[in-house]
Amino acid sequence: MSEHPAAEGQTVHPDLVGELSGPVEALLLMADEPMSSLTLAQALQAPVEAVEQTCRELRDFYDRTGRGFELRHLAGGWRYWTREEHAEVISRAVLEGQQSRLSQAALETLAVVAYLQPISRARISAVRGVNVDGVVRTLVAREMIEEAGQDPVTGAVVFRTTDTFCERIGLESLDQLPDLAPHLPDASTLEAELGQLAAVPPAGTTTDVDQLPDEPAADETLDDEMGAPRRGDPPAPAGGTEEGGRP
Description:
- With 247 residues, this protein is mostly helical.
- It has helices spanning 14-30, 37-44, 48-64, 87-97, 104-116, 121-128, 133-141, 163-169, 187-197, 208-211, and strands spanning 69-74, 77-82, 119-120, 145-150, 157-161.
């Protein structure tokens, strides 16, 4: 069996091609690299010639109907690609996706950092009662917080908010952060309690942070009041970029 597309004039029974269209589309949509005709044929338990004709007919159908994606045969296989003429809208969507909304858990963690910075992961976990490693990584990736050296006592890495954080919530400086609710304990008392909760355990014992439950999995998103655009699942960049979603 050949892995290369058969001659354009070669035809296969139309009923078989019609039956293969849906399964071929499903396989190509989930592919993370070009799939050869042979690979598709083996997965579908169908003749290679039928698979090749199916792919050609799908390609022509997408071109005739002006779909936003196309089916190409490159690097020895078939794969969906976004069309070059949609590069501008795709680029805009990708940029907006990078500023997508944060989850409630991420916003709570960001508030802890904002009011108690510089602060270590252990102290954040002590305040929130959950393991915050994943949320902290997300906030660092979004450039909302950054590393700010090490704690002089424990040597743990501490974090602080960034200029991006102030820009996103509309503050000139952290001095403009609103006061904490009156019913919260005095700052010095809170600091003392946090110091006790985040104290380094004796050698050979498991840290409190390790024993804390992990933060529930959630899509990170920026709060509406922070001016973020709507969340979306951006398609792959256009003009030579693979299509990663359903047409």
